[in-house]
Write a structure and sequence with these properties.
Layout: E1 6-13, H1 21-37, E2 42-44, H2 72-84, E3 87-97, E4 100-108, E5 114-119, E6 125-126, E7 129-130, E8 145-147, E9 150-154, H3 163-171, E10 176-181, E11 184-186, H4 191-212, E12 216-220, E13 222-225, E14 235-238, E15 242-244, E16 250-253, E17 260-267, H5 270-277
Parallel strand pairs: 1-2, 2-3, 9-10, 10-12
Antiparallel strand pairs: 1-17, 3-4, 4-5, 6-7, 8-9, 11-14, 12-15, 13-14, 15-16
Helix pairs in contact: 3-4
Length: about 300
């Protein structure tokens, strides 16, 4: 079946601060329905959208939030994907086995089936982002997930900073790069430092689009979430969800506060047009890149 030239996508920028997962999920489901009503064929939710970003502190009891995949959330979202005939990208805290957990993004196909998963590969451990306490690094590799709307190069948040991840997805045939995200400001930082961090985050992802000739979809949460330990002022999630084309051109960008759905028509033809003008994949010197597998060159 020939795919349509344009793919309408919807990115759900939402707060996720309710402590009842059902309330956050209801908010997501409502936004998914709104996006589908506006013609979206692919809808993306933020990272770990079922609740507050719990990695601000280290608490073993919070592992009770994890769920199996397939499980309750994939069953509900799969049924919704089938009802609306759309593809849904969601982000879950996966319980793989007792004491073994992952930060996992899932893709629900429009027939309701689980098309595939991606387990977050790069796991941060920074003040307010103690993810290594909870998440085992992913072991599924950088493999695009085949769907009815194309091959999705699905990555998650901290993966955003790594050109290797984006490049490997591109080399494996991804049609688009997607980043469900939960990132924000430390309230103790100056306004200048906050601006630098935000623009660095946007810039590096636009660079992935340019270097690989692919559209990039980045979906972040919004709102202030306090630190449960009280050791900091919490995180102000900076939103700024955006979609860029294969030359890094903005197709839409949200602000740092507004709850909204970004609706964008992504031109599927642009990637090949751009790659013909800027043939970066053609000109790669693969025989000289062996040291990329080393931690550091002394």
């Amino acid at each position: 079946m020939t795919q349509q030239a344009f793919l309408r996508v919807g990115l759900v920028q939402q707060p996720c601060g309710e402590h009842d997962p059902a309330l956050n999920l209801d908010r997501s489901v409502g936004a998914i329905r709104d996006a589908a009503a506006l013609g979206a064929r692919l809808v993306v939710l933020p990272e770990l959208h079922l609740g507050p970003y719990f990695c601000q502190s280290e608490d073993p009891l919070l592992c009770d939030l994890a769920e199996s995949i397939p499980g309750p959330s994939t069953h509900l979202l799969g049924a919704l994907a089938l009802e609306l005939s759309i593809v849904i990208v969601a982000s879950l805290f996966e319980r793989r086995a007792p004491g073994l957990y992952h930060n996992t993004a899932v893709v629900l196909e429009r027939d309701g089936t689980l098309a595939g998963c991606y387990r977050k590969m790069h796991i941060p451990d920074d003040p307010g982002y103690y993810e290594k306490f909870y998440f085992t690094p992913g072991d599924l590799g950088f493999k695009p997930i085949a769907t009815s709307v194309g091959r999705l190069g699905l990555l998650v948040c901290w993966d955003q900073w790594y050109p290797e991840a984006a490049r490997l997805m591109a080399l494996a045939g991804a049609d688009v790069l997607l980043y469900p995200t939960a990132i924000g400001w430390n309230l103790d930082d100056s306004s200048l430092e906050r601006a630098r961090q935000l623009e660095a985050w946007v810039t590096v992802q636009r660079g992935h689009a340019v270097a690989n000739g692919l559209p990039v979809l980045s979906c972040n949460r919004i709102g202030h979430e306090p630190d449960p330990s009280g050791h900091s002022g919490g995180i102000q999630f900076w939103g700024n969800s955006f979609v860029v084309g294969p030359q890094g051109e903005f197709l839409d960008r949200a602000d740092d506060q507004e709850e909204r759905i970004l609706m964008v028509d992504v031109d599927r033809r642009r990637s090949e047009e751009v790659r013909r003008m800027w043939p970066f994949l053609r000109d790669r010197r693969i025989e000289a890149y062996g040291d990329l597998t080393r931690r550091f060159i002394d």
